[in-house]
Amino acid sequence: MIIFDNYTPVDGGVCAANGFTAGGLCAGIKQGSTKPDLAIIYSSVDCRAAALYTTNKVKGAPLVVTKEHLKNGKARAIIVNSGNANTCNANGLEIAEKMCEITARELRIDPDDVIVASTGVIGQPLSIEPFETHIPLLATELTRFGGDRACLSIMTTDTRQKQFAVEFMLGGKTCFLGGICKGSGMIHPNMATMLCFVTTDAAINAETLDKALRFVNGVTFNRVSVDGDTSTNDIVTVLANGLAGNTEITSEDSPEYEAFVGALYAVMVNLARETARDGEGATKLLECIVSGASTDTIAASVAKSVIGSSLLKAAIFAADANWGRILCAIGYAEGEFEINKVAVRLQSNAGEISVCAGGSGVPFDEDTAHEILLEDEVRILVDLQSGDCTAAAWGCDLTYDYVKINAEYRS
Q1: Are 166 and 266 in contact (CB under 8 A)?
Q2: CA atoms within 13 A on the CB side of 223
Q3: Which pLDDT does position 188 carry in this prediction?
Q4: Domain boundaries, the chain
Q5: pLDDT at 193
Q6: Are 153 and 27 in contact (CB under 8 A)?
Q7: Fold type of domain 8-277
Q8: At the top level of CATH, which class does the domain 285-407 belong to?
């Protein structure tokens, strides 16, 4: 069970936690671009670290390097670029390692303690020159107020910055946990679905941190779908430097672990929702809440199936209450349940309306339903009426602009 009490949102994002600094600048990685495209996140002391990676068989070179570096569960800095994914490049591993080496030299740490990540176009040549030139400059500009700049630097087709942080208590000690992420397209629940970097000053060992990340990722980022595509460069990382001074969390069987998981969830669920809201070309956030399932697995399967339906997403864009597409998506979800028990309601700030009961349509006012679906946040409430388990998943509508953005992505 996730505990939601006693978490206070705070400013600072990835720099909210004590001991963390960050920064970002334009290194000219994508030709012709003037946006910031290179970021560093740095801890003044060693951190326990955990990460999850894309399930795509084609993996960006930075993920291969980072996975090797994190075998000991330690890290201290993150170097990340946008503008080029460093994927399917003959010298990709060499460049990713060199990025770590340059960063480590400038920060005076071990290269193995550097996490490296990249995002952008796949299969494009990448030169080490922008990193050799700009990492030394960036390393001198890291500040407690650099989270905004780092967040801006990792964006590609994103239209808004995504960052969130909370304050919470562990064993009488005040702790902070915050994160930034990027993600707008190639988003589908097969791991983390984006680049996401989370930092905390809580003390927790690497094994327990990894367990917390896997659990929270499963109920947040792993329930987001924009377009059904799974990226080659997805990664989510958590760094914990222990500067809050709490007694180190070493087990899942403690109130402190539950409180830590709650804080991690509070940050990651906000980032996950904002990722769905900012889907390429999207005009609406779509949330499917499934109740009455016999198991958590079935509830999650149905919720993800609904928000992943391209036909439904297109209907939501048009504010068309085509509830048959919801039933269709429910019907191909994994798990055993009785369709003739399913009830569906549509909900937004404009109201709520029932469109299906007992697996069949019910009379409803189309104009009212249309008004409900015109809102920029739409909820689909599915009741399987087969148990007590619930789950939520997040997506967005499918618009003309999604095709336009991706048709012109390399230009």
Answers
A1: yes
A2: 30
A3: 54
A4: 8-277, 285-407
A5: 47
A6: no
A7: L-amino peptidase D-ALA esterase/amidase (3.60.70)
A8: alpha beta
Q: Which residues are catalytic?
A: 193
Let me know: does 257 contact 249? Beta carbons within 8 Å: yes
Supply the DSSP string of 63-92, one letter for each residue.
HHHHHHHGGGSEEEEEEEE-SB---S-TTH
Q: What is the side-by-side strand order in the sheet with 343-348?
A: 224-225, 389-396, 285-293, 377-383, 343-348, 351-357, 360-361
Check if 8-277 and 285-407 are the same fold: no
Which candidate, 88, 19, 27, places its Cα nearest to that of 47?
Answer: 19
pLDDT in tens, 177-228: 999 998 754 455 555 447 999 999 999 999 999 999 999 999 998 888 766 5
In 3D space, the residue among 181, 178, 198, 210 whose CA is nearest the CA of residue 70 turns out to be 210
Residue 254: CA count within 13 A, CB half-sphere: 14
Share of the chain above pLDDT 70, in %: 92
- Supply φ then ψ for residue 369, to 5 degrees: -60, -40
Q: Which residue has the tokens 């400013």?
A: 11
CA distance 115 to 117: 7
What's the CA gap between 63 and 185, in Å, rounded?
A: 19
Cα 119 to Cα 163, 204, 227, 351, distances in angstroms:
17, 29, 17, 39
Asked whether 280 and 313 are in contact (CB, 8 A), the reply is: no
DSSP code for 332: T
CB contact at 8 A, 76 and 111: no
What are the pLDDT digits (tens) for 249-297? 999 999 999 999 999 999 999 999 988 887 666 789 999 999 999 999 9
Which residues, including other chains, have CB under 8 Å from residue 318's CB and lie 6 or more apart? none
Q: Which residues of 221-233 are buried (b: 16+ CB within 10 A; e: fewer)?
A: bbbbbbbbebbbb
Q: How many CA atoms lie within 13 A of 265 on its CB side?
A: 20
- The pLDDT tens digits for 71-130 are 999 999 999 999 999 999 899 999 999 999 999 999 999 999 999 999 988 889 999 999
User: How many whole angstroms separate alpha carbon 375 and alpha carbon 321?
Assistant: 13
